[in-house]
Specification:
The chain is α/β, with parallel strands linked by helices and 314 residues long. Helix content is 39%, strand content 14%. It starts with 10 loop residues before the first strand and ends in a 6-residue tail after the last helix.
Length: 314
């Protein structure tokens, strides 16, 4: 890995978590590159770790081509359902990335990269800066209740969004003088989060035909919902169990993000408006990518003031 920033301020890019909304990071990176801004250090949490790893590994073009081609059927095909410690094992998805994209040791990447995960037992933040890229990404995206945890060095790791949804602090610790942070959750509060995949809105993207879960899986999910008291017919119908889980995680991450950024502010905040993209709607990449580009364009005056003029205003 080359030593960054020998003669100029180090620019760090902190890519936040947000599940399918994270495809907006691709648009952010593209728009920054168009403006002549190439970060020296890249850090990511959850989906931010996945996109950041692809970028640093020289795989962003292939990743964008692939995500733009995703359809609902393809997304469902990556879900290896389980009712163990998570609804989805995640092995199909990671195996796909290992076979289709170049996997390497983090220390061999062209520029410094780090991912954030959470130690489930100790409740502490874990910075992943060595080992296989795919292993670090798999740990960072392990959303509790959805993806199964990952064991690493004797600890069970889950999504880094529990402790550090937008990893500005990791960028700083790795040597960044100026940090551009991308927060995907600024417009989420007050909205009802839908975990389920749904057709795109008219005029946006052709909707694929829904692919139902197997009868066995649906039966087990409905049984669990009934046991939790979510299956009754009396009174107003409550939100489904998975929607409750998604909305609760979203509220938690928004509040943690606000707290962390208050104490560890970025130099530039980029905030794509992606509230209409559902948690698992990975097949709506075009919408998210466009939102990422627009967010950088809106933030460009701030980017110019803080980054293109170096540290003069520090």
């Amino acid at each position: 890995m080359a030593a960054p920033c020998a003669d100029s301020p180090c620019i760090g890019l902190a890519l936040g978590g947000g599940s399918a909304r994270g495809w907006a990071h691709i648009g952010v990176i593209r728009a920054l590159a168009d403006a002549g801004i190439e970060p020296d250090i890249v850090c990511g949490t959850s989906i931010g770790a996945l996109v950041g790893a692809a970028y640093v590994g020289g795989e962003l073009d292939r990743l964008e081509t692939w995500v733009r081609s995703l359809r609902l059927q393809t997304v469902m095909g990556f879900f290896d359902f389980s009712l163990g410690s998570g609804l989805i094992k995640g092995e199909k998805l990671i195996d796909f990335f290992r076979s289709r994209f170049v996997d390497s040791d983090i220390r061999e990447l062209a520029r410094p990269f780090g991912a954030v995960a959470t130690d489930l037992q100790r409740g502490r933040e874990v910075w992943l800066r060595e080992g296989l890229v795919s292993d670090a990404v798999r740990a960072s995206i392990a959303l509790p209740g959805l993806f199964t945890p990952v064991q690493r060095n004797g600890a069970w790791l889950v999504d880094g969004g529990l402790v550090n949804p937008v990893p500005v602090s990791l960028c700083r610790a790795m040597g960044a003088d100026l940090v551009i942070a991308v927060d995907l959750n600024t417009d989420r509060l007050g909205r009802y989060v839908k975990l389920k995949l749904r057709p795109a809105k008219p005029g946006r993207e052709p909707a694929a035909e829904p692919v139902p879960l197997t009868d066995a899986v649906m039966a087990r999910i409905h049984t669990g919902m009934s046991q939790l008291g979510l299956g009754g017919n009396n009174g107003p119908r409550p939100p489904a169990m998975l929607d409750v889980m998604a909305s609760s995680i979203n509220i938690m991450q928004v509040m943690i993000t606000r707290s962390r950024l208050a104490g560890e502010p970025a130099d530039v905040m980029v905030t794509p408006r992606v509230a209409d993209v559902g948690l698992m709607e990975f097949h709506r990449a075009a919408i998210a990518i466009d939102a990422g580009r627009r967010a950088v364009e809106a933030a460009m005056p701030q980017v110019s003031a803080r980054l293109l003029n170096g540290l003069d205003d520090e």
